[in-house]
Amino acid sequence: MAAERQDALREFVAVTGADEDRARFFLESAGWDLQIALASFYEDGGDEDIVTISQATPSSVSRGTAPSDNRVTSFRDLIHDQDEEEEEEEGQRFYAGGSERSGQQIVGPPRKKSPNELVDDLFKGAKEHGAVAVERVTKSPGETSKPRPFAGGGYRLGAAPEEESAYVAGERRRHSGQDVHVVLKLWKSGFSLDNGELRSYQDPSNAQFLESIRRGEVPAELRRLAHGGQVNLDMEDHRDEDFVKPKGAFKAFTGEGQKLGSTAPQVLNTSSPAQQAENEAKASSSVSIDESQPTTNIQIRLADGGRLVQKFNHSHRISDIRLFIVDARPAMAATSFVLMTTFPNKELADESQTLKEANLLNAVIVQRLT
Asked: Carries keyword Nucleus (predicted)?
């Protein structure tokens, strides 16, 4: 019996060229029936994927434990490393029973791509469909991307004095659409359009947008912005940066407002400059000054924008200043007004006080119409 098995083993090795260990494996699996073992060997593709690899080769793969200068292995062993790399993308593989040549293989769920891999796919897809990489150009703050020519109307001046000016209408746009320039910024955790908010890569509502970019197409939401015009889409790579919302550009107020009235409304003065000077001189002479008593100069800012400076005694009262104003501006006699101090603004309600009592020595008094 042993001799018959040894003869079958030698014949199997002679026919297939396999080593004795592998020949013994097939013969034992076939109950030492040579014909069945050979059929199993060829069904397994053993005669096609046999290759001899030297252990001295750096890329050789060793599965056995017995030392030898040459050994026999299959192409399945050579692509083992490649299968392991594919498993990372496809999902982790599990084997239920047996070995890697027998048993049930179970593949786990696919591994999710990292943001960097997703950004790589987007750029790769865009390049495959004609996108061109360009250098980023730094623009000055006031520079626009493309100058727009004036397209409105205007007046054509006459060539001669007797020739009238004529209005010339501007050219109409060829189409109702408008060209749109959009910058797609791909960040570490999402993407943004121009200076908009961050949109997550994982949000299902953004899946169609990203898929259109990967296929080299302009997303539908950008086409709607153009209203039939051309969409120019730039992609910027910020995959290693966290999203930073840009500061809003300063926008000047363009609305309407109301002009507030001044503290001292303008009073119409019908007097001529000569008449006004005469009235001021008359008013100054009407103020009785006692030179033997202390004096002070009071500056008066009138409601009509004029200014008067008059000398008073410390004993003069605030009412005397009112009479002086009426004499210098007769039109003020029929006008209601109050006298106020500056810094702080305070109405001089008690006009019976003397200038010294009211602390108005060398002061500035403002006339305010009521």
From this structure: yes
3-state secondary structure the chain: CHHHHHHHHHHHHHHHCCCHHHHHHHHHHCCCCHHHHHHHHHHCCCCCCCEEEECCCCCCCCCCCCCCCEEEECHHHHCHHHHHHHHHHHCCEEEEEEECCEEEEEECCCCCCCHHHHHHHHHHHHHHCCCCCCCCCCCCCCCCCCCCCCCCCEEECCCCCCCCCEEECCCCCCCCCCCEEEEEEECCCEEEECCCCCEECCCHHHHHHHHHHHCCCCCHHHHHHHCCCCEEEEEEECCCCCCCCCCCCCCCCCCCCCCCCCCCCCCCCCCCHHHHHHHHHHHHHHCCCCCCCCEEEEEEECCCCCEEEEEEECCCEHHHHHHHHHHHCHHHHHCCEEEEECCCCEECCCCCCECCCCCCCCCEEEEEEC
Q: How far apart are CA 29 and CA 37, in angstroms?
A: 7
pLDDT in tens, 31-50: 888 888 888 888 776 544 44
Cα gap 281→279, rounded to integer Å: 5
In this predicted model, what pLDDT tens digit does every residue of 317-344 receive, in sequence order? 999 999 999 999 998 888 899 999 988 8
Whole-angstrom Cα distance, residue 27 to residue 15? 13
pTM of the model: 0.32
C-alpha of 124 from chain center = 24
In degrees rounded to 5, what are phi and psi of residue 142? Answer: -95, 5
